[in-house]
Amino acid sequence: MFSSNKDNVLLTMIRNGQEMSGNQKLNLIIQLSIPSILAQLTTIMMFYIDASMVGSLGARASASIGIVESTTWLFGGLTSAAALGFSVQAAHFIGANDFEKARQVFRQGLMATALFTVILTTICVCIAKPLPVWLGGGADICGDATSYFTIYCLSLPVYQIGILSSSMLKCSGNMRVPSLMSILMCLLDVVFNFFLIYETRPVSVFGTELTVPGAGMGVPGAALGTALAYAVTGVMLIWFATVKSPELSLKNEKWTFAPMWNYLRNAAKVSLPMGAQYMMMSGAQIVSTMIVAPLGNIAIAANTLAITAESLCYMPGYGIGDAATTLVGQSIGAGRRQLARSFAYRTVFMGMGVMAFMGLVMYIFAPEMIGVMTPDEQVRLLGSQSLRIEAFAEPMFAAAIVTYSVCLGAGDTLIPATMNLASMWLVRLTLAAHFAPIYGLRGVWMAMAIELTLRGTMFLIRLFSGKWLKKGFK
Fold first, then answer.
1. Ranges assigned E (strand) in 6-129
2. Which residues is 101 bridged to in the sheet?
3. Strand (E) or helix (H) holding 455
4. Complete DSSP assignment for 31-51
5. How wide is the angle at C-alpha 361 spanned by C-alphas 359 and 365, nearest 5°?
6. What is the DSSP letter of 255?
7. For this UniProt entry, which segments traverse the membrane (predicted)?
């Protein structure tokens, strides 16, 4: 089960115009989704582990990460947007069996994103010191927050090229290597954190006392552990994509630094709306953080941990979304729009079913999910209440996630990005600002649940309208 050969056979059927049965479509969705879901969950587990390790240091340590977390998501999102502008084009070319153009797009992507991430890193480092103050953080958490953000910023270049390589591999149909690298990244993060966060200390192993060395860096140690994990796995992803991938390998290609403007323009059509969306969405998250900040460190910590815990439930949606982008992109590249529509419907409904189940799990086990990350009872109680409010919105959140990925595979990003922004800014933030003074942190999460339900409804309307199929590259 989940064999690479079976994936390749079914993907080849798309490229060669062969008819596919319902079972074959479902098998291909599952074959591509499972590794991607595992990768998404592993990535979130890394944040979960960071939060748990830092949470053991107390609410102030958790708050120092929480105050800048939405900003790190912003810059991480911009790197993803830059990568997807190129990888979606590659999916279309691979679907058309034009591997030479797919490799040309990859080369252009490597050069363009390398330049982009140098600019992004410079901006990050410049704002690292005042950022926690801008976001309303207290003097007791600003120092650690600045250190955490600075270290994260310096890891962006290798993270960007690793994300591009991972995204290219996924759009070629190879979900396994990115998934394995995500698992390795999580394991490395645990190991690095274990030695960097804590002081040298005695540890009992099967009744034997051992002295474990530690750097005692606290919050900055968590950032450094994550950065090192990014670096190791990023280099491995770059090597595999450029050397070992049958569709993307550049080892025998003639390298040219001359811009190929058609590819860059097409990348901009995808990446600019996505980048603007990430900026505005993360800006909205930052505003949300500013709404939560006056509620105190307990609320900041509970909000941060609840967001991390909830991500375990919605990441399966993103995993299925990765499969949707690949399948829709290759189907459109092969000129098979009806097949693209079939894959779109199947992936969206599968995502809604999986996340409905995950929402039930989140509702039942909310106290345990928060409790793993913090010993503070006040934080645990407030975070659990927030998760249980959000659980009801998970199916419609899935509809928004997977339908957006469907649109991305078709090269349709402007209208979906606008939909995301309008929903976030006009509904969530407005309601959150109104509810927070009345209901505290629970009010912020009530606003989130209402907004996600509305957003999912809008995306389902977009899906069934079929307007996303009219997009594409020229």
1. none
2. none
3. helix 441-465
4. HHHHHHHHHHHHHHHHHHHHH
5. 120
6. P
7. 28-49, 73-94, 114-135, 147-165, 177-198, 218-241, 343-366, 396-415, 445-464
The pLDDT value recorded for residue 288 is 84
Question: Is 252 a residue whose pLDDT tops 90?
Answer: no
Mean per-residue pLDDT over the chain, rounded: 86
Among 353, 275, 289, CA closest to 320: 353
pLDDT the model gives residue 68: 84
d(CA 298, CA 3): 47
In the predicted structure, residue 123 carries a pLDDT above the cut 60? yes
CA-wise closest residue to 305 among 441, 147, 423, 144: 441
d(CA 149, CA 153): 6
Mean pLDDT score, 305-316: 83
Which residues are within 8 A (CB) of 114 and not within 5 positions of it... i.e. 6 or more apart?
157, 160, 161
Contacts of 303 (CB under 8 A, 6+ apart): 66, 289, 292, 383, 386, 441, 444
**From the CA atom positions of the chain, what is the Rg in Å?**
22
Write down the residue that tokens 């105190």 correspond to: 296
Classify each residue of 236-272 as buried b or exposed e, where b means 16 or more C-beta atoms within 10 Å of its C-beta.
bbbebbbeebebbbbeeeeeeeeeeeebbebbebbbb
Phi, psi (rounded to 5 degrees) for 16: -95, 5
How confident is the model over 49-58, as pLDDT tens digits? 666 777 777 7
Q: How many residues does the chain have?
A: 474
When pLDDT is averaged across residues 107-119 and rounded to a whole number, the result is: 93
- C-alpha to C-alpha distance for 374 and 398, rounded to whole angstroms: 28
Separation CA 213–CA 226 (nearest Å): 19
Phi, psi of 202 (to 5 degrees): -80, 140
Q: CB of 54 within 8 A of CB of 61?
A: yes
Strand partners, 202: 211
Backbone region of residue 206 per phi and psi (left: phi > 0; alpha: psi in -120 to 50; beta: other values): left
Q: Tell me the C-alpha distance between 108 and 259, whole Å.
A: 7
Please tell me the least confidently modeled range out of 250-259, 352-361, 365-374: 250-259
- Structural domain total, the chain: 1
How far is Cα 407 from Cα 225, in angstroms, rounded to an integer? 35
